[in-house]
Structures are given as structure tokens and as C-alpha cells.
Write a structure and sequence with these properties.
homodimer; alpha+beta; Arc Repressor Mutant, subunit A; Dna Ligase, domain 1; three-stranded antiparallel sheet; three-stranded mixed sheet; 6 strands; 35% helix; globular; DNA-binding
Chain lengths: 136, 136
DNA sequence: ATCTATTTAAGAATGATTACGATTTACATT
DNA sequence: AATGTAAATCGTAATCATTCTTAAATAGAT
């Protein structure tokens, strides 16, 4: 995922291009890590002083729904990062301090048997948490 | 985990036994599923009409710290369930509607190599989400 | 029975997120 | 290029989960 693909998706799905949206995606493309809404807001308001929180949150959830961003949450905060380039399903090691990630190719779902036929599985989450080298 | 063990832990750790605490643990022991604070509050206020949200939250986090309750969060809400009887480390299938769980004995951490020596691992999360038979 | 630290009540404060009406903007069509 | 329209944004207020505060009540020890 990168800025031009993201803008392509927006266009194809009938959403409008705005400079703010481009800057927002570009920010995620530079950072390549999980960011809370507040940090995104702070960054965006440097370029657009009056930018509303509503716009941030609306775009974050829109981009998540379009597959441009991935979402996770910890400590009662949702966080987003640009969807990884790899199309293949994968998981992450996540630094709880800065949100930086490392990919994990293996998926536990491949190795566990079906536990209950009476349970309709809709999703799963596997994340390893810690501190990256820079944050230690 | 059950009510008497929970009360034992409270006593051993120097915390006080109260009727409300016993009722709270007893509620979790009956339900055996993940419950959000609000649901716990609603239940407790049937018996104790004026019971404050603060008391609920303080006890939930205390019990989590004491290992009496397990915590997870989804949809921006923390949820708690009575710690499972099995001492062994395990994971859960979780019904997103009612919070009921099934245990998963396997842990993905047993099967993946160390991905990055420069990354200090402090924890991990593996959960499978879906709908249980009763909620379908 | 009294003392003291802990717990509780009640409400206010905080922090994240969502909702809303008014205004502005992107962009397809004239 | 001007226009119409749906979408995007703004500014603010509302909502929801959670934490804090202060004074009163209470469990358990002495």
C-alpha cells in the first residue's frame, strides 16, 4: 500500500480526493507504524491549524473500511497503520511505545483444528507486544 | 477460580472482604463469560441500587491485578471474565455478542521462531472471534 | 467498644470518539 | 467556465468509557 494506490482506491469507490486526505495517507506512508488518532491530529494541525477532530476520525475509519489502513487497539485507544505492502495475510510484533511493527508470516489459524462447529468464526487477532530496539 | 479461592486471595493480599465483592465474584462465577463494566454495574445495582460506577471499575481492575479476573478489550470496551480453572496458559474463542468463550489449549508462541532479538517481548494476544451457537 | 486504614457514594473530571447543523468543496455535467 | 449536487469539512456539542475527588461509612485489628 502506498499513497497513489490509496488515492486510486478512494477514486474507484466514489470518494473524493482532497489535499488533506493525501497528506494524511502520506503521513502514514512515512511513519509505517501504528498511530493513535491524537498523534495524527497533532501532525495534521501543523499544516491545517483548524482541522477538526471529526475529519480525522471519519477519514481513519473510512480508510480502514477501504483497506488502506489497519486498525488495532490497546490501552483503550484505537491505532492505525498503513496496510502492509504484502498482500498475504500476516500478523505483527508491535512496540507498545512507538507503534513500530515487525511482520510475522505465520498465522496460528493454519495450525489449530476447528474447535467448535457450533461457533461461527468471523475473525481473529494475533499480536505480540513489546519494546523495539529504539525504545528500550 | 471460584468464589472461595477469590476471597482467599483477597484476604491473603490484605484486602478486605465485603459483601459486594463476594456478590461481584459470584456473578462472574455464574456467568463464566466476558462482561463489560456496564453490564456488571447493571447487575450489581439490582441488589445495591446506589452502587457507584467507581466501585465497579476499582474492583474490576483490582481483581484483574490479583489474577481473579482476565481482561480483554474490543469495540473500545474492556471486558472481564473469571479466570479459567485451568492453570495452564491458554487462549479463547470469544462470542462477540454475549462474551461466552471456549478454550484453546494451543499457544502460537510455542510454534513461532524468535523474530527479532532486538525486540523485547512483554506479552501477546491470540483470540478468535465469532458467534456462539446461542447467538446465531 | 474504639481506632484506623480501607472502602464506598456521589458526582465531577477526563479522554477518546461520535454526532450535528452549517458551510465549503470536488467534480461531473451543462 | 458556470452550475448543481453530493460529499467533505468545520466548529462545537454530545456521548461513552473510565478515572479522580472528597467526605462519609465500615471491616477488621487492638
Amino acid at each position: 500500500m502506498n499513497v497513489s494506490i490509496a488515492l486510486e482506491i478512494l477514486k474507484n469507490e466514489g470518494f473524493k480526493y482532497t489535499e488533506k486526505r493525501e497528506n494524511l495517507v502520506a503521513f502514514f506512508a512515512e511513519e509505517k507504524r501504528y498511530l493513535p488518532a491524537k498523534e495524527v491530529l497533532t501532525y495534521m494541525q501543523k499544516s491545517y491549524p483548524g482541522m477538526s477532530v471529526d475529519t480525522i476520525y471519519r477519514n481513519l475509519t473510512l480508510f480502514r473500511d477501504l483497506g488502506i489502513l489497519e486498525e488495532t487497539e490497546w490501552n483503550g485507544e484505537k491505532r492505525y497503520r498503513l496496510s502492509c505492502a504484502t498482500d498475504a495475510h500476516h500478523h505483527h510484533l508491535i512496540c507498545l511505545d512507538c507503534g513500530r511493527t515487525r511482520q510475522i508470516e505465520a498465522c496460528p489459524m493454519d495450525n489449530i483444528p476447528v474447535y467448535d462447529a457450533d461457533f461461527e468464526v468471523v475473525g481473529h487477532k494475533f499480536e505480540i507486544y513489546g519494546k523495539c530496539g529504539a525504545c528500550q
